[in-house]
Amino acid sequence: MKQRLFAPGPTMVPEDVVQAVGRAPMHHRSQEFKELYREVIANLAYVYQTEGHPMLFNASGTGAMESCVANLFRRGDRVAVVVAGWFGRRWRDIAKAYGLEPVCYELPDTDGTDPDDFGKWLDRQGKVRGVLLTHCETSTGAFHDVHAVVQRIQDKDALVVVDAITSLGVHEVKTDAWGLDAVVCGSQKALMCPPGVSSVSLSRKAWKAVETSDLPKYYFDYKANFASAEEKSQPRFTVATSIVAGLAVSLRLIREEGLEQVIARHVRLGESTRAGVGALGLRLFSKSPCNAVTALLPPDGIEAEKIRAVLLKEHGIRVAGGQGNLQGRIFRIGHLGYYDRGDVLTVLGALEATLRTLGYPVKSGSSVHAAQEAWGS
Amino acid sequence: MKQRLFAPGPTMVPEDVVQAVGRAPMHHRSQEFKELYREVIANLAYVYQTEGHPMLFNASGTGAMESCVANLFRRGDRVAVVVAGWFGRRWRDIAKAYGLEPVCYELPDTDGTDPDDFGKWLDRQGKVRGVLLTHCETSTGAFHDVHAVVQRIQDKDALVVVDAITSLGVHEVKTDAWGLDAVVCGSQKALMCPPGVSSVSLSRKAWKAVETSDLPKYYFDYKANFASAEEKSQPRFTVATSIVAGLAVSLRLIREEGLEQVIARHVRLGESTRAGVGALGLRLFSKSPCNAVTALLPPDGIEAEKIRAVLLKEHGIRVAGGQGNLQGRIFRIGHLGYYDRGDVLTVLGALEATLRTLGYPVKSGSSVHAAQEAWGS
Fold first, then answer.
1. Is A252 found in the same domain as A132?
2. Which residues of chain B have a CB within 8 Å of the CB of A9?
3. At residue A138, what are phi and psi to the nearest 5 degrees?
4. What is the ipTM, given to two decimal places?
5. Which residue range is the domain that position A347 belongs to?
6. Which of B27, B99, B239 is closest, CB to CB, to A7?
7. In whole angstroms, what is the distance from residue B189 CA to residue B167 CA?
8. What pTM was computed for the model?
9. Chain B: residue nearest A240 by CA?
């Protein structure tokens, strides 16, 4: 059976990317790899919409998140954290692990951030050294309007640190124009590459904070990593060259399509998926759905894990379940990266059949019809 | 021109491994990946010669080294470090970055550790919480006899932490039998896989030390990573699934060949390479050469970097240069992992031709003859 990945990372990747990953490994100090590395950094800057030079780490996105905390702050620093799901909690936990003092703006998992309410809350917290945000909360499918939130931060000294792991290449992330100080991404999401490397973009203000940080780090040390990348066009340590080779190809594809078109495609992916599941009477888990992943409540009387199991077994389609407290309560359809109209129709067609198999009344074709209409011509 | 990698990592990898890496990415929470992950951990334990369960990290070997420091020690802990090259210095620098107090047993880069001398030195240092060792010092081509060194450590409370990144699968590393508390390896060395993941094996004593460590960590947190691997047969965070898929294949190949045979093959690789370069009158840099990489001084009047350049340009062969203070002073032929007699003859044949091109008198065939003799039938 044809196997298809509809998880919010790892995602399906283009054949050209798979082939680049599957070449004999390059040496990480070769001229060939240097050129590739420079190209990857330049094309990441394009996706990040920054004049800066993003750094690449041989680590998952969580490692890159940790690098922000370890490099930008000092022990005891107060940081504000928006906590509205699994990944907001991760920011909080990393901050705690490093002896920072996180003050948390806690939201129900179903909600996106209300910028005004957040702004008022933040004003009451007194001085904070940083604000740690999640752009798309992958665990709930929620979009948090980072741009609007940032405009409500009065204290211009606070560093704005954004987990854009699932949003970069899906939603607009204007790193420089919005004044984001640190933005994190991973390779295996909208960047259409297998997992293995992650990236961080830093503002000038963030680089100043690096100078005063007193937290221990070596592998993720920004100054040393940046110096190697800038002066030698080389990673500081041996990196997953195969994955970087894949990323080089996938970033070229993003440039060819054009970032604006890529983001517009994700608007359609999100809207048509939501139209399709809406036609089936399914309810979105989040009140503020993002275009990277659609989180759904199962119909009454049908288990989310059953839906996932039938989709996988009968249709070769892997969607994600809930994480942590949401395990068994929701299922999530990823559509970030290398996905198009055909993929939306495919997953909805399989979902219709799956729900019918599980005894839920479905008007055959209703969801694909709605999705097709929403997609437009 | 046929391209060949003779660097001490990344190394050449078997075609089956390349193909496994180049498959469409698996989901890291799939049943298929769980089974692969369990197999990889079990086969790593075989290579580590341990009853324990090595942990896998999506990071280079340096990240895994840092994980040892962050998880096993406390701020201010005194640790003894053998410093005899680039990677011994790395142990020292990581220890310093985390606020430990390294006391260094410094050797000339050309030397291996004399176990007796080290033992006497250590006895004079008073109490240390750990001893940080490098098994093969990749930067100098030196073998340090970790087994003999460990037998000279009187203080049985001190944790023995070994960088076996370039030695595991080359020399004997009897993790349990020798009482090694933490042993680090990477995927891109003798394990015959592209770079991207690294591993750490821990003793019971080390696990006890984890309980009392007060240093900040999150990504590399041993308890959380081990719990995920043990309880769920899953990596804690998204991992480079493509690289793990490659590692599964390469570890199977190591099991098929048998660890004893693999180590015996590396003895031959080391001895025949040394016999070959000896016949050319080249001098080894290290007085204590290892079987992973042969570090050589260029003949008088010929630059090491010239030799490397001609090998690459005329013969498609990439050997490594010197690192740090040894840059330009030596060149290093890697022969760890997927290498055999034919590879030794190939690199020596090219080296003969290269030296002749650069004006060094070579008796044609002398090095390949010597290597062939040393290899035996």
1. yes
2. 238
3. -55, -30
4. 0.96
5. 4-9+259-375
6. B27
7. 8
8. 0.97
9. B196
